[in-house]
Amino acid sequence: MKNLFKVFGLIAMAAIIGFSMLSCGGGGGSGNINGTYSDEYNMATYTFEDGKISMKSMGVTLRGTYKIGGGKITATFDGIDKPDVIKYTLQGDKLTLTMDGETTVLTKK
Predict the structure, then answer these.
(1) Phi-psi region for residue 77, left (φ > 0), alpha (ψ -120 to 50) or beta?
(2) Does any domain span residue 3?
């Protein structure tokens, strides 16, 4: 009987930790990414604003929508059928994006 209580205790603890991570955005990405970010050369800017995304680079602007979940940004750009799934982390003013094995570090303006 004591082992049964231990098992239930561990399950309850795991559930509490899991829900805490979800509410804090744990699992890779966390925090509010709203704002404008640029790469280290200022050649590209990314603006995230309440579910809308704008990416500007070399005179071309892509606009679309995004959702966040599980440490990933799923961005769907206008005129492009397939959404991009991008892993991300946010630490201070640094937004790190990883897609297809390529990592880009952006700084909030």
Answers:
(1) beta
(2) no
pTM comes to 0.69
**What pLDDT score does 106 carry?**
97
Residue 82, domain extent: 28-108
Answer yes or no: is pLDDT of 53 > 70.
yes
Residues whose CB falls within 8 Å of the CB of residue 46, separated by 6 or more in sequence, listed in order = 36, 37, 38, 53, 54, 55, 95, 106
* Average pLDDT of the segment spanning 17-36: 54
Count other Cβ atoms within 10 Å, centred on residue 46: 24
* Residue 22 binned pLDDT confidence (cut-offs 50, 70, 90): very low
In CATH, what number is assigned to the domain containing residue 70? 2.40.128.280
Q: DSSP 3-state assignment of 95?
A: strand
